[in-house]
């Protein structure tokens, strides 16, 4: 074996060994499948370095795992309140096909899709097995909707130290690993509805990971925002008398999450805003979405009466930066499939910076409020 062949073999061996560190326990489950995906099990380390498992739907084109050297982009799509990661994977998988029709270099071999499933106690017996009503595996599960706010897990019961944001950190580091994905050019963290709420909260308090790969945070039609100061635009109607609006996670006060607690509690809203402003955010707004899902909380109503009002109030008070984009979808309501498959979604999820040349399409749609044109034509 010549020296070059030996070096290549050594690199391949190291990549294989390192790849095994990401493999979690295979968990028996009956979660729905998705075309183009395998149900994969991703190893997430807890605060003591012990292994836990996050189930997800992961790219499996043609019934085989991707050649990682071909992958240039990763799209991590976060599900909504129903924890239907299979449906969200399908939305992105179908959108990739639409993108391929425009640019054949963007395809299911060059784009890795991961749709994590943040199971909760309602998924017992479906998302993971139980014994005497309690999970008996290493599966990560959360209480209710606490996953979108960064709270720590309830299962495994003996390892309650994993924030859903810890899981996101480790997923980003996986796709950024040059030994796993040597040609990765862009990572997109995307979500619609409650998944979008998770995207925005993670962007606000997520750790500074010093990745080599740029990350864009795509948010489609969230029901609420992390308000980055105490200046609330609404105090009447359902917001009247609300005393918790400035608390996590519609604000940063009373931050009861363990993840990055010292940072948030010491620097407060100003520190969180500075971190949020340092991210590249891609906002997507369906102009016909005037719905509301506030989980019985008053905080969202201090931002506006519905998704539309809250979005415009946020834009006015916190104008996006030059690295952000704001896209409006005419005739689209609260529809994850249409948000990802139409041209604004295709560009933000796939085309922008695909080859690492920092190319970006101008903002889509007619402007709605002052300050919502960070990337004008």
Explain how this protein is built.
The chain has 377 residues and is an alpha/beta fold. The chain has 8 helices and 12 strands. It has helices at residues 3-20, 85-102, 164-176, 194-205, 261-277, 307-317, 336-341, 343-351, and strands spanning 37-45, 51-59, 73-78, 111-116, 119-120, 130-131, 134-135, 141-142, 186-192, 215-220, 280-286, 325-329. The strands form 3 sheets. Strands 1-2-4-3-9-10-11-12 form an 8-stranded mixed beta sheet, with helices on both faces. Strands 5-8 form a two-stranded parallel ribbon. Strand 9, helix 4 (194-205) and strand 10 form a beta-alpha-beta unit. Helix 2 (85-102) crosses helix 8 (343-351). The chain is globular and about 65 Å long. Mean pLDDT is 94; it is low at 6-19.
Largest beta sheet: what is the strand line-up?
1-2-4-3-9-10-11-12
User: How big is the Rg?
Assistant: 20 Å
Number of helices: 8
Q: Judging from the principal axes of the Cα atoms, what is the shape?
A: globular
Overall mean pLDDT: 94
Q: What structural class is derived from the secondary structure elements?
A: alpha/beta
How much beta, percentage-wise?
A: 15-25%
How are the SSEs placed, and which strands pair?
Layout: H1 3-20, E1 37-45, E2 51-59, E3 73-78, H2 85-102, E4 111-116, E5 119-120, E6 130-131, E7 134-135, E8 141-142, H3 164-176, E9 186-192, H4 194-205, E10 215-220, H5 261-277, E11 280-286, H6 307-317, E12 325-329, H7 336-341, H8 343-351
Parallel strand pairs: 3-4, 3-9, 5-8, 9-10, 10-11, 11-12
Antiparallel strand pairs: 1-2, 2-4, 6-7
């Amino acid at each position: 074996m010549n020296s070059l062949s030996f070096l290549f073999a050594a690199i391949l061996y190291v990549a294989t060994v390192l790849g095994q560190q990401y493999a979690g326990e295979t968990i028996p489950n009956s979660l729905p499948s998705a075309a183009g995906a395998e149900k994969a099990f991703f190893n997430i380390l807890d605060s003591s370095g012990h292994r836990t498992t996050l189930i997800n739907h992961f790219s499996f084109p043609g019934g085989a795992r991707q050649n990682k050297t071909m992958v240039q982009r990763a799209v991590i799509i976060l599900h909504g309140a129903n924890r239907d990661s299979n449906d969200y994977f399908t939305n992105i998988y179908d959108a990739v096909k639409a993108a391929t029709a425009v640019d054949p270099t963007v395809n299911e071999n060059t784009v890795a899709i991961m749709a994590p499933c943040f199971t909760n106690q309602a998924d017992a017996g479906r998302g993971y097995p139980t014994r005497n009503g309690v999970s008996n595996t290493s599966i990560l599960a959360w209480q209710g909707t606490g996953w979108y706010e960064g709270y720590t897990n309830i299962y495994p019961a003996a390892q309650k130290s994993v924030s859903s944001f810890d899981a996101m950190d480790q997923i980003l580091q996986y796709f950024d690993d040059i030994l796993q994905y040597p040609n990765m050019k862009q990572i997109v963290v995307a979500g619609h509805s409650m998944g979008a709420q998770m995207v925005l909260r993670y962007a606000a308090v997520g750790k500074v990971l010093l990745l080599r790969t740029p990350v864009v945070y795509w948010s489609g039609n969230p029901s609420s925002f992390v308000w980055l100061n105490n200046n609330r635009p609404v105090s009447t109607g359902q917001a009247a008398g609300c005393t918790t609006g400035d608390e996590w996670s519609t604000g940063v006060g009373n931050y009861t999450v363990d993840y990055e607690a010292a940072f948030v509690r010491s620097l407060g809203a100003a520190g969180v805003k500075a971190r949020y402003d340092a991210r590249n955010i891609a906002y997507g707004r369906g102009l016909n979405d005037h719905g509301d899902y506030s989980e019985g909380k008053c905080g969202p109503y201090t931002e506006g009466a519905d998704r539309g009002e809250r979005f415009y109030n946020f834009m006015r008070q916190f104008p996006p930066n030059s690295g952000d984009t704001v896209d409006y979808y005419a005739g689209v309501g609260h529809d994850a499939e249409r948000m990802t498959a139409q041209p604004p979604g295709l560009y933000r999820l796939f085309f922008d910076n695909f080859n690492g040349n920092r190319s970006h399409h101008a903002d889509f749609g007619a402007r709605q409020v002052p300050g919502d044109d960070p990337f004008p034509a």
